[in-house]
Amino acid sequence: MALIKGLHHITAIAGNAQRNFDFYTKVLGLRFVKKTVNFDDPKTYHLYYGNQTAEPGTILTFFPWEGIQQGRHGTGQATETMFAVPAGSLDFWTQRLKQHNVLYNNPAKRFGGAEESVTLLDPDGLKLQLVAVSGDERPFAVHPDIPAEHAIRGFYGVTISCTDHERTATLLTKTFGYALTAQEVNVYRYTTPEVRTAAVVDLVVVPDEKRGLSGGGTVHHVAFRAFNDADEMALRETLVQQGFEVTPQIDRQYFHSLYFREPGGVLFEIATDNPGFTVDESLEALGSTLKLPKQYEAHRAEIEAVLPALA
Mean per-residue pLDDT for 96-108? Predict the structure, then answer.
């Protein structure tokens, strides 16, 4: 049995924290799941957004660095984050995006018309897709201006741009348990049968495109889901045997993580379900207060003094 259960979370880089917060909670209507700090830079936020129950496969997170240089989308990057929205809701979303002056493309069909989506840019230039799907019953975040029949359910998948997809495809199929389920021109779609949602990875082959540069509006890493520590460490052993340089397991407060670079250069993470986002606040209170990793609690006053207020 494959030990990867689709996507766990995706982490990206933003500029202004308040602008990021406003877009994802007020325009897209995601739930603010966690307000914490970057483990490696505790004077910078780490902001988490997700569905109503903050389940893996719905969590988009950001490092907002004020004044950071704009990144460049290109090869060696995850270049699109795909969210699932209910079938029939794309007209609602195009009107809403227009109302909020969001850059977007009109709905377009792919894979022989089997899939319809809207592509948009967040305020920092991060590329997102809203993909119309049927039967996604994940609990949506409640928003006063977004009816239940249109609300985002969580991730649909992620797109990775590469010059040559074969080695990344081998990792996905031989190690992660994905299978090639569709192809259209230069897009190769891989899907895991282990879960029904957050199950898609698209590899887009663009051999003449420049390599991406990290910065505002780009994805920092893509995290895949392992149910528990035993599954994660079994995966680590397999990856090491295959020649990947994998970190030791790292405690990230809400999940346990491994990191390594996939063959095309994208930073991959394996993240566990445990202990989850309710380890330090109740489900009802998620995102309501600043939560610090244990090693920074003694410096709370200093950290709070430099972090911008979010409202």
Answer: 98
Q: CB of 73 within 8 A of CB of 213?
A: no
pLDDT of residue 311: 87
Spatial neighbors of 7 by CB under 8 A, at least 6 apart, are 56, 57, 155, 157, 158, 198, 199, 222, 223, 224, 225
Q: What is the largest CA-CA distance in the chain?
A: 57
Q: Which amino acid is at 118?
A: V
Torsion angle of C-alpha atoms 145, 9, 62, 148, degrees rounded to 10 = 0
* Residue 255 neighbours by CB under 8 Å, 6+ apart: 8, 56, 271, 272, 273, 274, 275, 276
Alpha carbon distance 62, 123 (integer Å): 13
DSSP conformational letter for 106: P
CATH homologous superfamily for the domain 7-306: 2,3-Dihydroxybiphenyl 1,2-Dioxygenase, domain 1 (3.10.180.10)
Q: How many Å apart are CA 7 and CA 24, to the nearest integer?
A: 19
Distances (CA, A) of 244 to 92, 156, 172, 235: 44, 27, 14, 11
Indicate the domain borders of the chain.
7-306
Contacts of 216 (CB under 8 A, 6+ apart): 13, 14, 15, 65, 68, 69, 70, 71, 124, 125
Who's near 228: CB < 8 A, 6+ residues apart?
272, 273, 274
How high is the mean pLDDT of the chain?
97
